Amino acid sequence: MNINRSGAKFSKIVSIGQKIKELSRKNGKEYLFLNRGVNAVCNIDLSEVIGNIDFNSDNIQVYPPIPGFPELKEAINDIYFGNKTSSANITITSGGMNALDLVFQSIKVKDIYLPAFYWGAYIHIMTIRGIINYNYDRFEDLLEKPEELKDSAVIICDPNNPVGDKFSDDKVLNLVEKLNAEGTIVIFDSPYRRVFYNDDDDFYQKLLRFDNVIIVESFSKSVGLSGQRIGFVHTNNADLVDELKIRLLYASNGVNAFSQQLVYELLTSKEGKKAIDDFREKTRNDIAENIKYLEKTGLLAKEFYLNSDPIGIFVIVNKSEDELIDYYIGSISLSFFTRIDKEKANKFARICVSVPHEKFIRFFKPLAERLN
Question: Does residue 159 have a cis bond before it (omega within 30 degrees)?
Fold first, then answer.
């Protein structure tokens, strides 16, 4: 049988997870899975929310509308955009990765620029779709070549994956404004932002004035629903909206109806809002405590945060993937997330800091004590 090979590789995150499970099976030791990209401080408590959903309704038992349920899109307009856009500009997708793939397929550009340290899936999706891509090191590098970027797209991920650095909103908006004015498409992919910001955050509203901005969002990180695979795309461009609908129709015939109804209840009901608030508060607190511990013990790789703040669900530590596994800590080498100086990057590792603080300390304490 002849196969059309995509050229993409299977996720290293998954393969490392399998490796750690096998090690645990062989040696009987418990491992801390910081290689994963999910919020694991706590699960969101859905027990009071599920009762609001009628599983016998047509909203669950028939095909969902291709671009998403109107009531969910209206709720997103309210919560994320302060009712300052049209729900017609919002397309519901099967998670953030599906949203990015749909966008990459649909925009006509000569190439796409992504950060020097990037989420590995960007490269693999572009490889499958045959999209040329380059890296930019700093925001300032993009501003130095506006003509070169005229028919290109730029991905901004803030807070970043894998580094977990957050730049000031003013700096990000200044960059977006200048790129937009040159006709460059900006793909704003920030699924971690709403973990750290409440519903009064108006950053997405400020992006609405830029016609070349595409916002990609996911409910996996912000409300802990990785398993439901649901997100959305926002664009002011009606042609892009139409194309996204067509590609959604023939790829999946819409997005899982239950996940849409669940997110709707979380965004609009009293029980849902409380569940989100509780989840975010606990998650933020433990992330902050874990980062403070890494700073105090000298394990945080501070050179990556000279002009930014480490507030994402990921950070970079100055130990390698192999060094951490010796202490039963799963991680991913930073070299997996870059094409620049891989030998140097191999000395660092990306870890997810969204785990219970007590458990985090228990695993890192032996390493910290050895260093100090």
Answer: yes
Residue 344 to residues 40, 217, 299: CA-CA distances in angstroms? 29, 32, 17
Q: Does residue 279 sit in helix, strand or coil? A: helix
The pLDDT assigned to 364 comes to: 97
Average pLDDT, the chain: 94
d(CA 298, CA 90): 44
Report the candidate in 222, 213, 183 with the shortest Cα–Cα distance to residue 80.
Answer: 222
- Are the C-beta atoms of 315 and 348 separated by less than 8 Å? no
Instruction: Using the predicted structure, report yes or no on whether residue 13 has a pLDDT greater than 90.
Output: no
Residue-by-residue DSSP string for 141-171: HHHT-TTTTTT-EEEE-SS-TTT-EE--HHH
Q: What is the mean pLDDT of residues 146-171?
A: 93
CA atoms within 13 A on the CB side of 358: 2
Q: How far apart are CA 72 and CA 261, in angstroms?
A: 8
In single-letter form, the type of residue at position 193 comes to R
324 has a pLDDT exceeding 90: yes
pLDDT tens digits, residue range 289-322? 999 999 999 999 999 999 899 999 999 999 999 9
Provide the edge-to-edge strand list for the sheet that holds 112-115.
90-93, 231-235, 213-218, 185-189, 153-156, 112-115, 133-136
Specify whether the CB–CB gap between 225 and 217 falls below 8 A.
no
Instruction: Report the alpha-carbon distance of residue 372 to residue 367 in Å, rounded.
Output: 9
Show the domains of the chain with their CATH numbers: 12-44+272-371 (3.90.1150.10), 56-270 (3.40.640.10)
pLDDT score for 198? 86
Of 261, 270, 222, give the one whose Cα is nearest residue 44: 222
Q: Please, where are the H alpha helices in 159-228? A: 169-181, 193-196, 203-207, 219-222
14 pLDDT band, cuts 50/70/90, is: confident
